[in-house]
Batch of 2 targets.
Target 1
Amino acid sequence: MMRRLLVAIASLLIALPALAHKPSDSYLSLWVRDTVVSGQWDIALRDLDFAIGLDANGDAEITWGEVRARHADIAAYAMARLALSMSGSACPAHVTEHLIDNHTDGAYAVLRFQAECPKTGEALQARYGLFFDIDPQHKGLLRLEFQGTSVVAIFSPDKASQSFSLVKPSKLTQFFDYLVEGVWHIWIGFDHILFLLALLLPAVALRSRHAWQPVKAFRPAFMNVFKIVTAFTVAHSITLSLATLGVVDLPSRMVESVIAASVVIAALNNVFPLFSERRWIMAFAFGLVHGFGFASVLADLGLPSDALVLALVGFNLGVEAGQLAIVSAFLPLAFALRRTQFYRRVILLGGSLLIALVASAWFVERAFDLKLLPF
């Protein structure tokens, strides 16, 4: 009965992805020409509605008229949360045009603006604070262009202020920049981390007589982890490459929905095991979907045309490095605690149920455009 229940839950979660949307992101593009910085900022209407209230009549539909009536408020709210400077001097910005654009996860307000800097410099400083006070998981995806070169970055509450060199970078520098972004993305990608942890929690235990028993030696635990991590890495590397190179393209709303579902299924599998000894199969199957999630971030960042392969390889290696850091911290601690009731009951079973609960809330948020959690 429990197995049938798990299969039913899995089928339901996978069947609903068409209604889901991506987590909160905005897309900021800057073009630097001498002392002039031109910009375009795409911000989700659903996020603006949550922050300042755009739905005037409360019918859950945001119309062009309602957006147009709040142009001044949208501009004031957004531009108060972006500060640019060069050579230590502020570059005041003003909005020049308001547009609407449709992304895969819904309608976005598009602000085009221009900033004037008092003098040129070798670096541009940016401070980004959009939505951080109401959504700590919001990210600002930046693409900066100058002298025919593209630089990418991700703004988050921990990386709200950043400085960007305006000296044309070498290919090695671009490779390193994407590697760092790959590491950072896996560390702030809580859905990816929880999926990996849900698969790793039973790695130091064996299923016997309907209960989890500790492994007797480190080698079996290491091999379990090795198979899971390798399967996940191979799978998401395949789809990351295919999606980034334009060979395969899936709607982001479907991808993000299935990613949330994968976390629920992997966690519940620890409580009602279907794949107790072959979790690497689950890691590979869902890893293919997680690869599309990684690819959407890389695509939003933008790839330099003159260093496409280097950027792709750098980002992927960064994801692997960040992933290995998590595994390296987890495995020794889990192995040391494996014989305790605390690990098997509280961490393994209790932790899995908590992961499933959180991931279920994520799924509901993405499926029905709700805000349930602050992360």
Note: The chain has a mean pLDDT of 87.
Target 2
Amino acid sequence: MSVYTSVDSEQLDGFLRRYDIGKALAFTPVATGITNSNYMLETDHGRYVLTLYEHHSDDELDYMLRLQRHLAERGVRCSQPVADRRGDFFSSLNQRPAAIIIRIEGEVRNPPTEEQCALIGAELARFHLAGSDFDQVRDNPRGLDWMVAVRDMLIEYLGEEDQQAIESSLVAAQTIDLEALPRGAIHADLFHDNALFDGAELGGILDFDYACNDVFVFDIAVLLNDWCIDAQLRLVGNRVNTVLEAYCKHRSLTGIEVEALPLMLRLAALRFWLSRLYDKAFPLSGELTYTKCPDTFRDMHRIRSSQMPLGGI
């Protein structure tokens, strides 16, 4: 989370009059992250996050926010938007669409423990199952077509070896029948800093900016590439198995999903390598901004490309 658009006290008070959540007591900008403008908001009714969306269309926001409400109503532990007095989940603030989200209690655990890996694996399965009757669809905004387009935009920033590595993965992606893989609503960005833990419990999953409809196994790969690695970015077998065993207690993986997982781990690394390289090459202007280094995922992509088999799974 970052701050690209400032909000003063008069603007905030006017916006809050749309809601039945009381008067503001504290309002603080959040300076980490790279996508939206976020503020911690405390009122005399509770604790919230005010988010101003910097690049999403109304259709995308409608999907993201209604998906969160849909999941929360089905018991998934996740961030939940507050409806205003008209029943809308977002409206305009300082020329940006904005929403108020109920703040999840807890903190990021870095690194997550094996017990927390089990909790998030189980919750991701519940997420996938709960989204099965969500009736809205959003194509993956950072899927294969996006990867190809961004690769072309970043050619001047890529050496020959990196270009060849990217091309190899994009070619490999054509070898799998994506339409045969189970799909539905996914989070698509479930890093460990997008989940909060309150003591021994999972407080909830947050940051649905890239939530979309895509194959479930890609969602699992994104999680494994962040939650289940050592300092050298290699997958840790017992952590991987902990996540998958917890997931499969709620939703069994099909044979084709198991076969596709190594390639999905490779493509997930590529997706975040390209997105972070893009953010570095074409940064947004803002009051407080934070851009993550792409090198970690370049290195991870190299490892996943050279070590496709997943032993022990």
Note: The radius of gyration is 20 Å.
